[in-house]
Design goal:
Number of strands: 4
Shape: globular
Distance between the termini: 24 Å
Structural class: mainly beta
Protein name: Acyl-CoA oxidase/dehydrogenase middle domain-containing protein
Oligomer: single chain
Number of domains: 1
Keywords: Oxidoreductase
Low-confidence stretches: none
Largest sheet: 2 strands, antiparallel
Mean pLDDT: 82
GO molecular function, one term: oxidoreductase activity, acting on the CH-CH group of donors
Helix content: under 10%
């Protein structure tokens, strides 16, 4: 999955996610989104990927 542009890392009990949101159809009615991010910078592009479930009401 080399096209994933999000990166992130764990800080305490939270993940810090870096990237740019791309708006998806009907996302304005969603309460949650799924986000694939690279969390292991030492792994190749097909590995080191995490799936996060993110609430749409958080800042960022």
């Amino acid at each position: 999955m080399p096209h994933i542009r999000y990166t992130g890392y764990c800080k305490g009990d939270k993940y810090i996610v870096n990237g740019q949101k791309t708006w998806t159809s009907f996302a304005q009615w969603a309460n949650w989104i799924f986000c694939l991010i690279h969390t292991d910078s030492d792994a190749n592009l097909q590995k080191g990927i995490s799936l996060l479930l993110i609430s749409m009401d958080i800042f960022g």
